[in-house]
Inverse folding.
């Protein structure tokens, strides 16, 4: 009988100890995000910040892509399919150029005089035939359509974070498909990419792209985006 | 329901014949921590036999590895124990690095900074893993609140991992020869300082919480009645079944690879190895469910201790990746074991000198622990099965691989 009562006392007491901890939570702010309700899908505003470098959807900036197929080789699950044809000898899609990445995220494309040498980023860099674009993640217009081209621009020393030489493209990419339903988000392909054109989106678009159809998850980064729509129109006219 | 043939006639004579019933528990049972099917042979409510059927999460990790190069295998190890994926990455990388060291023509060493980052992140990952174990165990037993608290704290850890490697669960952070550089953490930069400050802030927040959780669940009378003295695994049995990690220490065996066979830089840190003891005034017996659970709660404190030592020392300068052109280990074989949150994680690798391994075998601590279930559960009640599965803390992704 004594043990019975002691048991009841112990049960009630230890529960009360726990209750004292839980009751404190009533006076503390909520930590739960009511995800679909507190989320503005129209404005793509999330309730929490996505850290820089998050591994989201794969995105290929196709105009920088040289078709080296390194990403296709390193992919553990073979979700990248690349078909490329080599251009005839002597032909190339554009001349060699330099891309200056600024520290604020902008990129300026142009030619640097004597760019064979290693550049000192602390000194001013002079670019000729420039064109600029905002942000690396955006879909980029063709170079010719850009408004501020063919200028000479000098970047003050210390503003550039790195300078990349973009070699002339001798590959004509017929197909660059990424099947995101197969992707395992390991990020190995973005590490081997020599031109750093294959990236993973660390924005909300890179996370919320679910679909009802599996085929919608195959993203095609192909020549239509790269070389303009001319070719498609020709095919349609021929039909 | 199906009756089985009574083979032992003696039992029929002694007591009235009762049908034995075969009940399938799982594969989609919330307390099986994955997809585990238990075939229970019941006599009333007494479990005569519990046969685990595994393989629902089998993803051919070992066969896949034969067709992939070494760096490509690391994302697959993430999918083994997805609760503590950093430790799985590390276990595999340690084995490959050991194999690479055998090649005398190449001078190869993991940089100091990478070692510190590895220990830092893996100990945080150990906390996250034990938090999940604590939360779900409470939920199995019937306490829902600890589950929410554990996930609240684990979320903060996942945000920390997200910042350093860009993923929440499948990190692919620790690489052969160092750690990933996807998100650069420059030595001495503001970003590094902010990151370490965030970790310290978390530890300051989390350390008192462990005592709170002990008040909330560990000493709770209902919880301890369900777990104390249930399914006692003596030390001999734990060793013979190959149970490792908290399950082994819960049986009173003082064995931790981090201390007894120090790999990486674990010999530089001071930490205790919690081992279960008899507590007569509470009613806990060495090797019961409660002891195994308590070892995990104490281990979280030790992990906090290790992380605090790293924060006090600060991360050393230098690169985070060794100068490795290509991962091409020499011909040979290696078995290397490390202490993952769930026990001894071993990788056996056979190399023929090509960039792809000939054979990779993962030694899963959960698989060994699960094999003891059949003997542990014999003669107990159905409700105790839930308490056992929660206490041996299995992750089916690692059992099946």
């Amino acid at each position: 009988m004594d043990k019975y009562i002691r048991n009841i006392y112990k049960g009630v007491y230890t529960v009360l100890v726990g209750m004292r901890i839980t009751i404190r939570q009533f006076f503390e702010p909520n930590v739960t995000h009511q995800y679909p309700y507190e989320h503005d899908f129209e404005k793509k505003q999330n309730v929490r910040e996505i850290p820089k470098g998050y591994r989201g959807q794969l995105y290929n900036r196709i105009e920088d892509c040289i078709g080296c197929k390194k990403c296709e080789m390193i992919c553990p699950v073979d979700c990248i399919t690349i078909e490329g044809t080599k251009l005839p000898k002597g032909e190339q899609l554009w001349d060699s150029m330099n891309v200056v990445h600024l520290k604020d995220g902008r990129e300026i494309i142009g030619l640097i005089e004597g760019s064979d040498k290693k550049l000192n980023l602390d000194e001013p860099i002079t670019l000729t035939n420039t064109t600029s674009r905002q942000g690396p993640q955006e879909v980029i217009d063709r170079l010719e359509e850009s408004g501020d081209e063919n200028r000479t621009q000098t970047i003050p020393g210390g503003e550039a974070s790195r300078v990349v030489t973009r070699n002339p493209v001798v590959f004509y990419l017929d197909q660059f498909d990424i099947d995101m339903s197969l992707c395992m988000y390991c990020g190995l392909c973005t590490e081997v990419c020599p031109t750093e054109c294959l990236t993973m989106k660390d924005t909300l678009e890179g996370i919320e792209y679910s679909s009802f159809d599996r085929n919608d998850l195959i993203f095609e980064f192909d020549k239509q985006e790269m070389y303009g729509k001319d070719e498609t129109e020709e095919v349609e006219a021929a039909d | 329901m199906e009756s089985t043939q009574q083979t032992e006639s003696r039992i029929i004579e002694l007591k009235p014949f009762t049908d034995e019933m075969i009940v399938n528990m799982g594969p989609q049972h919330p307390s099986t921590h994955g997809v585990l099917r238990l075939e229970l042979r019941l006599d009333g409510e007494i479990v005569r036999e519990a046969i685990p059927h595994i393989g629902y999460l089998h993803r051919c990790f070992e066969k896949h590895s034969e067709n992939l190069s070494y760096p490509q295998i690391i994302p697959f190890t993430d999918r083994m124990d997805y609760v503590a994926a950093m430790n799985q990455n590390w276990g595999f990388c340690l084995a490959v690095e050991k194999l690479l060291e055998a090649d005398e023509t190449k001078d190869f060493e993991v940089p100091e900074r990478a070692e510190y980052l590895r220990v830092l992140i893996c100990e945080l990952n150990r906390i996250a893993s034990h938090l999940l174990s604590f939360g779900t165990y409470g939920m199995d037993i019937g306490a829902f609140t600890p589950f929410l608290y554990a996930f609240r704290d684990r979320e903060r850890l996942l945000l920390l991992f997200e910042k350093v490697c860009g993923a929440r669960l499948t990190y692919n952070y620790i690489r052969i020869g160092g750690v990933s550089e996807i998100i650069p953490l420059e030595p001495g930069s503001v970003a590094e300082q902010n990151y370490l400050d965030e970790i310290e802030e978390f530890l300051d927040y989390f350390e008192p919480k462990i005592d709170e959780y002990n008040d909330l669940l560990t000493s709770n009378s209902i919880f301890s009645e369900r777990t104390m003295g249930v399914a006692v695994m003596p030390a001999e049995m734990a060793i013979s079944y190959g149970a490792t990690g908290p399950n082994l220490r819960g049986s009173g065996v003082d064995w931790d690879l981090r201390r007894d066979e120090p790999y990486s830089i674990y010999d530089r840190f001071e930490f205790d190895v919690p081992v279960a003891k008899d507590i007569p005034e509470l009613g806990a017996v060495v090797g019961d469910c409660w002891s195994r659970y308590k070892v995990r709660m104490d281990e979280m404190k030790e992990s906090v201790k290790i992380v605090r030592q790293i924060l006090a020392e600060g991360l050393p300068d230098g690169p985070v990746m060794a100068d490795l052109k290509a991962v091409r280990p020499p011909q040979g074989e290696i078995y290397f074991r490390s202490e993952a949150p769930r026990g001894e994680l071993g990788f056996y690798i056979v190399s023929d000198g090509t960039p792809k391994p000939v054979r990779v075998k993962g030694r899963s601590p959960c698989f060994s622990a699960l094999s003891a279930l059949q003997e542990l559960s014999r003669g107990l009640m159905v409700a105790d099965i839930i308490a056992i599965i929660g206490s041996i803390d299995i992750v089916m992704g690692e059992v099946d691989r």
Q: What stands out?
A: Chain B has two domains: 9-53, 61-400. Chain B has a mean pLDDT of 85.
